[in-house]
Design brief:
The protein has 421 residues and is an alpha+beta fold. The chain is built from 13 helices and 9 strands. Keywords: Plasmid.
Length: 421
């Protein structure tokens, strides 16, 4: 298999035959499909394979077992192993994120082979058609890798039928395991309500007890405000590889520190301390809940846009899946460092990173909730053609890392071994 971290035409870890086939067929979609089919036929195990595997992933006759599973087993194992290490040692979080992105790049590569980018100067209508075809191809390819479906969502009696049906349809973009995890007792059912003028899950937010927590660093500016003038030690937090602009200071545990934390928690309730091996000192960081901290989700009838429903369901899925939380928080940590503007706030607009990459509200800062928009914005972009930053629309570079992170999570995210927790 070819692993790709770039757009079509860029360097790939492929055989020379694969590169030649790709370049030879790049001018024609039909030739491209035929070349890839022939290439895959040459990779089949000894003894041949059935005709069911003679098409690209996402085409007719696909299967979720047998040869196809063998084809993706390397990516699946790499992601699973990286997740196991990250779950035990926080220092491996970055490796888990990178493994997910690399696995997602392989999914993207398959889709790009059959749905290449439009030529320079293509009309908007042509671009929209390509994006729509690509979104369907993503869905079909993911369905081939692991089982997807439209698992029943628990609903309250009297919920609006159309909203429930929309939720059921949009839940089909997620692995069944994710959907089922949001509906296990004692979690609350999805609520579709009309007494709000915005779509969201925060209006019915109910913190759960005993939710597992991830300890994350603070932005350096925040850490400086909290510890200015206090006695600190140089030892870094041993379980997190800190990026530039982030800090998790080791501070003397004094009444002054406790007073500052109490004041600071009025706007950042999740800021707290972590025990250290040094007597009388604690680490100052933020707790990110990785469990069922948001058992309710709400979406009012005024927001019937399927993309909005998919966005809100993404929050619900992420908050019930530790593997997703781990990857998206680590991804976000790297994205909000070293920016020329302040971190996103609710209602903030698009940033453009160096090189013209667009991050559309990915780094929105919810100061009192453990939530980010890495998964939600990425899902909207992939399957509803929103936010051109993921696809390179409007003259901006495609955000391939973000796109591949989402694809990798959907395709290869391991199940949470803690089950309902």
């Amino acid at each position: 298999m070819c692993l790709s971290s770039t757009e079509p035409g860029g360097p790939r870890r492929c055989s020379s035959d694969a590169r030649t086939a790709y370049q030879r067929a790049s001018s024609s979609v039909a030739e491209l499909v035929r070349a890839e089919t022939q290439l895959e036929a040459g990779l089949e195990p000894a003894g041949g394979a059935s005709d069911a595997y003679s098409t690209l992933p996402g085409g007719a006759g696909g299967s979720s077992s047998g040869w196809f599973d063998d084809e993706w087993s390397v990516e699946r194992d790499q992601v699973h192993d990286a997740y196991q290490r990250a779950s035990v040692d926080d220092g491996y979080r970055g490796q888990y994120r990178d493994a997910v992105i690399e696995a997602g790049a392989e999914v993207a590569y398959k889709v790009e082979l059959s749905h290449p980018l439009p030529p320079e100067g293509a009309e908007d209508q042509t671009w929209d058609a390509v994006l729509q075809a690509r979104a369907l191809a993503y869905r079909d390819t993911l369905a081939e890798i692991r089982s997807f479906g439209t698992a029943e969502l628990a609903t309250q009696p009297g919920s609006y039928r159309e909203g429930v049906e929309m939720a059921r349809q949009q839940s089909g973009y997620f692995p069944d395991e994710w959907v089922q995890a949001t509906n296990r007792p004692p979690y609350k059912p999805l609520i579709i309500k009309e007494d709000s003028n915005v779509g969201g899950i925060s209006s019915c937010y109910r913190p759960a007890t005993q939710a597992p927590m991830l300890t994350m660093p603070l932005m350096a500016r925040e850490a400086g405000e909290l510890t200015d003038g206090l006695t600190t030690a140089p030892e870094p937090y041993p379980h997190v590889q800190l990026s530039q602009g982030w800090a998790m200071p080791l501070v003397e545990d004094t009444p002054e520190l406790r007073a500052r934390l109490a004041t600071y928690r009025r706007r950042r309730p999740n800021v707290g301390t972590v025990a250290s091996d040094r007597p009388g000192f604690v680490y100052v960081g933020q707790d990110i809940a990785s469990g069922p901290v948001g058992p309710y989700a709400s979406l009012d009838r005024a927001h019937r846009d399927p993309a909005v429903m998919l966005h809100e369901l993404s929050h619900r899925m992420a908050e019930h899946n530790h593997a997703v939380t781990l990857a998206t928080e680590t991804f976000l940590q790297g994205r909000v460092v070293g920016q020329r503007r302040k971190r996103y706030v609710i209602g903030g607009d698009t940033w453009y990173r160096d090189g013209g990459f667009a991050d559309v509200a990915v780094g929105i800062d919810y100061p009192d909730h453990s939530r980010n928009n890495v998964l939600s914005m990425g899902m909207e972009a992939l399957f509803h053609r929103k936010y051109g930053g993921l696809e390179g629309a409007a003259g901006h570079n495609p955000d391939t890392q973000h796109r591949n992170l989402i694809l990798g999570l959907l395709a290869f995210s391991p199940g949470d071994p803690r089950g309902a927790t």
